[in-house]
Amino acid sequence: QVQLVESGGGVVQPGGSLRLSCTASGFTFSNYGMHWVRQAPGKGLEWVAFISYDGSNKYYADSVKGRFAISRDNSKNTLYLEMNSLRAEDTAVYYCAEGYCSGGNCYPPDYWGQGTLVTVSS
Amino acid sequence: DIQMTQSPSSLSASVGDRVTITCRASQGISNSLAWYQQKPGKVPKLLIYAASTLQSGVPSRFSGSGSGTDFTLTITSLQPEDVATYYCQKYNSAPPLTFGGGTKVEIK
User: Fold this and answer.
1) Phi-psi sector, A104: left (phi>0), alpha (psi -120 to 50), beta
2) For a tag on chain A, would you pick the N or C end, based on fewer CB atoms within 10 A?
3) Model pLDDT, residue A72
4) pLDDT averaged over chain B?
5) How far is CA B95 from CA A45, A106, B19, B28, B60, in A?
6) Distances from the Cα of A66 to the Cαs of A59, B2, B24, B89, in angstroms?
7) Which of residues 16-75 of B touch A (CB under 8 A)?
């Protein structure tokens, strides 16, 4: 069955950096685009970043552009999110989710990881 | 960027009631609209995609409609297990995903 497992969350000081990982299994990872979506405590869902199946296309929310970088290693079935210059407002649970695209159409994520909590605090 | 606006932000209804949640896009998105259910402490669950297509395994009391800018999620007979926050989401155009603000559904 499809599994997405995030890791790398924790407590970091403002201005600090953190790298999240998402390890995939149960599907052909290299055929799927991937998203990062976050949810601040008690708040709604916010899309963060997307990477295409081969890593050639990347998109970012304005709130993280220039600070976060999405990448992937298809040989390791792993998605990454490098987060720099972290702010208190980046505190959230970060989910990875599959983002399948085919024939020029993309589809809403069906499979999500359980999430990893990032807390930015001094 | 396209904005997604949901209403109401919360509602309280009785078991067996018909519940309707609306979602409006700031620009036309054809039928590239999905609905998710998120229970407290849980991962979002895809209920409906392409505005009206029920995801496999989702109870038939859930339905979606709309196209262009105005969309609706309907629960025909609210059940206790439907207590959750519901999000609309547009997809298939840049930026890749945009969520509505959510609608919290409670039992009266």
Assistant:
1) left
2) N
3) 98
4) 96
5) 15, 12, 30, 14, 31
6) 11, 21, 30, 24
7) 34, 36, 38, 43-44, 46, 49, 55
